[in-house]
Amino acid sequence: MVTVSVLFIVYVLYANFIHDPQASNFLSHKTALKRALNTAVWLKVMNVHIIFACTAMIAGAVNFSSSIMKRHRKFHRVNGYFYLVSVLIVDLTSGYMAPYATGGKASSMGFNLMNIVWLVMTIIAIVKIRKKQVNQHRKWMTRSYAFVFTNLTIHALTWLLHQGFGLAYITSYTISVYGSILCLMLAAELVIRIVFRKEAF
Q1: Residue ranges of the chain with pLDDT lower than 70?
Q2: How many angstroms separate the CA atoms of 55 and 59, rounded?
Q3: For the whole model, what pTM was predicted?
Q4: Gap between the Cα atoms of 112 and 98, Å rounded
């Protein structure tokens, strides 16, 4: 998981800060927007969004380490709250960008739904650990952490629908926003059922 996270972060940072820092390709799909897009502000917000999405990905991955959890509890706790702050910032920046989402209002509503679900899951995870319910905490953190792969899942599904099935890019993207919510929630439950069941023995 850490390897996948690091490789994806390297790719995202390269693609957004070196290869296409103006997000020209991504912005080219934003047509027929109902409100004017201030590109300079949007790019700054997106950069903050990307940076904290990457930090959430790393912080979450590190906290799943059993050795860190057992030997460095204070670090685990502080890093957990750092993950929460990162999720909050990602949600806030996503909230700003949602009205300009590719696919219009339908995609915008999907992103807002995703933001709510992700934040609620993260808060539940924190409530569980404060009640000393460690196993439930890990399960809810697994559900929360799955959503750090939102960008990867959306673009993978969009590519599949657009390139594989020939759907229009905007249609593919909109379907993928909602599809990613379902896929990530199912993936989290699969991990919980397989990994946690093995650890029980």
Answers
A1: 1, 31-34, 197-201
A2: 6
A3: 0.88
A4: 7
Ranges of H-type helices in 15-104: 24-27, 39-63, 66-71, 73-97
Q: What is the DSSP letter of 100?
A: G
pLDDT of residue 68: 80
Of the chain, the end-to-end C-alpha distance in Å amounts to 22
pLDDT for residue 9? 86
Task: Answer yes or no: are the C-beta atoms of 93 and 112 closer than 8 Å.
Answer: no
| DSSP-assigned states of every residue in 141-166 | HHHHHHGGGHHHHHHHHHHIIIIIT-
Please enumerate in sequence order all residues whose Cβ is within 8 A of that of 13, keeping only pairs 6 or more positions apart, or say none: 50, 54
**What CA–CA distance (Å, rounded) separates 79 from 122?**
13
User: Is residue 187 within 8 Å of residue 157, measured between CB atoms?
Assistant: no
Q: Residue 15: helix, strand or coil by DSSP?
A: helix
- Spatial neighbors of 192 by CB under 8 A, at least 6 apart, are 139, 142, 143
SS3 38: coil
